[in-house]
Design a protein that fits this description.
Blueprint: E1 9-12, E2 14-17, E3 20-28, H1 45-73, H2 76-90, H3 96-105, H4 109-125, H5 130-150, E4 165-169, H6 174-177, E5 185-190, H7 198-206, E6 210-212, H8 216-221, E7 227-230, E8 235-238, H9 242-264, E9 279-284, H10 290-295, E10 301-305, H11 307-313, H12 319-332, E11 338-341, H13 360-367, H14 378-384, H15 386-399, E12 405-409, H16 415-434, E13 445-449, H17 452-456, H18 458-464, E14 467-470, H19 472-479, H20 498-513, E15 518-520, H21 531-536, E16 541-545, H22 549-556, H23 561-572, H24 577-587
Parallel strand pairs: 3-4, 4-5, 5-6, 9-10, 9-16, 10-11, 11-12, 12-13, 13-14, 14-15
Antiparallel strand pairs: 1-8, 2-6, 3-7, 7-8
The structure holds phosphoenolpyruvate and magnesium ion (MG).
Length: 590
């Protein structure tokens, strides 16, 4: 690791994924970041103008194609927004004004275009009127599209960065994070990002340290030779001194050793000292990692986030493609159960598809939602486009012939959503039977409890489903009205908030009353301070990322069931999140 003469600088952020990363910086640019300003010669002016006209024309074609699609299938609001965008692209502001400035200022188009847009944004954003706010949004949208055609996309892919890369970027998106390899990426550092965002979950599942809420722009202005990222404390150390480097290298080694030791005991049961078994399943995004799940000692897959099939191939998988994948997965599990959650698309899990992509028609609505976490996500999205749900259910039901498969419904907010899925399943079974296609007799259908209305109605819902899965990542954000993807609400997002504990207690009681299994698959099931508390609240099944299984089992093996119940009783007496946090910190050290 080269050590420069530069001074060591320590930046503080929010710790998102534990561990120590040491490496060299790689900046991943977002379109609005630092547009380079380059002087051009007089003879280059006309070709520069041509380049701008081409980018504008390509953007027009994009929007035109999108508008055509929306006219036949999309909601009328979208058609009207796209019409406005097309008008804006004809406006002199985006045609003659830009061209004049290129001529007068002899600068590259990106910088001129960027300055002009910034001027416009500033002018409009001081006006509080809703209409003008919407126009600002339109300007940003259109300018992003044009800039995207002006600037070549980043040459380097996240899955192909050199060894020991520290990825520095404005924001991590799940579809990119899932492609990162722990053998190449030493850490992530971002300007924005929340503690249970999907990108954060994946970083933790891969064991890649991650710190968010760091001033990336400032970092770009500093000459950086090497970086240490302390994902446990939320520190980013630029140009570490020899002494600092040595300290962190030792810490990194001890983390690795510790993990190796835990892993060596992963074949043991998740069992309390007094013999109560807690079954540990795995959460999975990438079917290729199924072997790691078995090696990690999982009892099966408790949550397959099937939407990642879509993110990795950047297209909706067909029924046949899904059937092949699910069949392969369930066969590899050799009798262990596979819980397939139907596509949870939307919220922070969305991708931009080019407008001429055959699946683009499903996604332009998602891209324009003002509040995506509360929008057309998961089961709401699937019921809006039943052909997507149907293809997925058919694939799952066909694959059920080859092993134990369960269907899980995400983001249920009303019991009717469960009923509609059950009806669909029955229709498909009838059809398959008539065609002589075999499937399992029993395919349990479960409901995710991650919306407060569903938790409150859990007694009624538990009667109608075959199992219940508590998704605390979303439940916490909705109960506390604290966005899981937003660094600025990280101090309000408490899995240990007393209200969350009461919700969990209520759902467990409802499931027990209806004699239905209940599993918890949120990130808090991997937190050693939460595990005994959750057991004390009555949970006997968890699903966590494979990487966390050894630690979860190790934690369970240190507790007696009675102690866990007493801990839960004590915890329920606290009325504020900070009191409860202190109580747990004091009571759960072992
Ligand atoms: C959850 O919300 O707790 C959950 C497991 O689902 P996801 O994190 O994929 O939203
Ligand atoms: Mg969820």
């Amino acid at each position: 690791m080269p050590i420069g003469k530069e001074e060591e600088i320590i930046l503080r952020g929010i710790p998102i994924s534990k561990g120590i990363g040491i490496g060299l910086p790689i900046f991943f640019a977002s379109l609005e970041d630092d547009v380079p300003e380059v002087a051009i010669q007089k003879k280059e002016v006309e070709s520069e103008i041509d380049r701008y006209r081409r980018a504008l024309e390509l953007s027009r074609q994009d929007v035109e194609a999108l508008r055509k699609l929306s006219q036949s299938e999309g909601p009328p609001e979208i058609v009207s927004i796209l019409g406005t965008h097309l008008e804006m692209m004809k406006d002199p502001l985006l045609t003659s004004v830009i061209e004049e400035r290129i001529r007068d200022m002899q600068r590259n188009t990106e910088s001129i275009f960027h300055c002009l847009i910034e001027e416009y944004k500033t002018r409009f954003s001081t006006l509080k009127d809703h209409y003008f706010q919407e126009r600002v949004r339109d300007i940003i949208d259109v300018s992003r599209r044009i800039l995207g055609h002006l600037r070549p996309m980043p040459l380097i892919k996240i899955g192909e960065v050199p060894h020991n890369s520290i990825i520095l970027t404005h924001e991590l998106v799940p579809s990119e994070t899932v492609e990162a390899k722990a053998s190449l990426v030493s850490a992530f550092v971002t300007a924005v990002g929340g503690i249970t965002s999907h990108a954060a979950i994946i970083a933790r599942a891969k064991g890649i340290p991650y710190v968010a809420n760091v001033d990336i722009k400032k970092l770009k202005k500093t000459e950086v030779h090497s970086i240490v990222v302390d994902g446990s404390q939320g520190l980013v150390i630029l140009n570490p001194s020899r002494q600092t480097l040595k300290k962190y290298q030792e810490l990194q080694k001890s983390h690795q050793l510790n993990y190796k030791m835990l892993k060596s005991a992963s074949h043991l049961k998740g069992e309390t000292i007094d013999g109560y078994e807690v079954r540990i399943f795995a959460n999975l995004e990438n079917p290729k990692e199924i072997d790691q799940i078995i090696k990690a000692g999982a009892s099966g897959i408790g949550l397959f986030r099937s939407e990642y099939l879509f993110f990795t191939q950047k297209a909706l998988p067909t029924e046949e493609e899904q059937f092949v994948t699910y069949k392969k997965m369930v066969k590899a599990l050799k009798g262990r159960p596979l819980v397939i959650r139907v596509f949870d698309i939307g919220g922070d899990k969305k991708i931009d598809l080019p407008p001429n992509h055959p699946d683009a028609k499903y996604f332009h609505l998602l891209g324009n939602e003002p509040n995506p976490a509360l929008g057309c996500r998961a089961i709401r999205f699937l019921l809006r486009y039943p052909e997507i749900l149907e293809a997925q259910l058919r694939a799952i039901i066909r694959a059920s012939f080859f092993g134990e498969i369960h269907i899980l419904i995400p983001m249920v907010s009303d019991i009717s959503e469960v009923r509609l899925v059950r009806e669909k399943v029955e229709e498909i079974q009838l059809d398959l039977r008539s065609k002589g296609i075999k499937f399992a007799k029993d395919i349990p259908i479960g409901c995710m409890v991650e919306v407060p209305s569903t938790a409150i109605m859990s007694d009624a819902i538990a009667e109608e489903v075959d199992f219940v899965s508590i998704g605390t990542n979303d439940l916490v954000q909705f109960v506390l009205a604290a966005d899981r993807s937003n660094a600025h609400t990280a101090d309000l997002y408490f899995s240990t908030h007393p209200s969350v504990l009461r919700f969990i207690r209520m759902v467990v009681a409802s499931a027990n009353q209806a004699r239905k299994p209940v599993i918890l698959c949120g990130e808090c099931a991997a937190d050693p301070a939460m595990i005994p508390l959750l057991i004390g609240l009555g949970l006997r099944e968890f699903s966590v990322a494979a990487r966390h299984i050894p630690l979860v089992k190790h934690t369970i093996r240190k507790w007696r069931i009675l102690e866990a119940c007493r801990l839960a009783e004590g915890a329920l007496e606290h009325h504020s999140a900070s009191e409860l946090k202190k109580f747990l910190a004091a009571e759960t050290v072992r």
